[in-house]
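Quick entry between incubations.
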Amino acid sequence: MKKRMLKMARTPLHEWNLKTEAAIALQHELAQHIVLEDHLGEVRFIAGVDMAINEEHNAARAAVVLMSFPELEIVERHVYEEPIRMPYVPGLLSFREAPSVIGAFEQLRQKPDLIMVDGQGIAHPRRLGIGAHLGLWLEIPTIGCAKSLLTGKYDKEKLGEEAGSWVPLISRKETIGAVVRTRTRVNPMFISPGHLISLETSIRYVLACGKGYRLPEPTRQADKLSKDNTTPDNTDVNFTINYSSSQPDTKNMNVQVNQFKLW
DNA sequence: GCGACAG
DNA sequence: ATCTTGTCGC
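Done. Structure below.
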């Protein structure tokens, strides 16, 4: 029997296997469609996504964890693995990671109201970091939560040491995000709206998802799931492997597990 | 021309 | 991203 999952099946926005020049041109084009006003309804479910790479096995593993809000309890967990498609190129991260993340998202039963992505939102050279790109593709509000800076400047002196303090991230005279102290005396996070959300609201949700760690809980859980080879928890993990990303439905195995270690 | 450069 | 031991601080 087949499992029901979200059918986001519609005409694909675009191809993913593009040459550098085409990818850059596409980012400029897509950035024009980003909406930075809040288009959120009641937020009951927030998803966190992250990736892990295993060069040795040429495997890319994407993880998505759906959590209830504001309780922040795990509702669903999915891991999607496939061959690595592209090398990492600063500014073109989404072309390497988004396809896998989308594969993981297609396993979700419950559609999230908000997504926290590991990487930049619009705080990107062409204003289309992976957070913004995923928001456009999925048509769901997204927030970019990066652990380091890609582009932009900020007043390091004015950033307080206490959790909750933040300063704007500026680029070309414009505010493209915020440098947020998510934990006292710990390196800040670089937050920027992805799509269908404002910067103020983005910061609000990131702080509301804080559990005393540097990473907001949804992202932290996804990070753990993509890296850990075992999951000694209560909730099961849906593990899907696509052995041929070039031919999506050729070989695909999907299993429920609570213990896994494929590398 | 010279650096900087998410994960 | 991944590698990789001990160690400083609340």
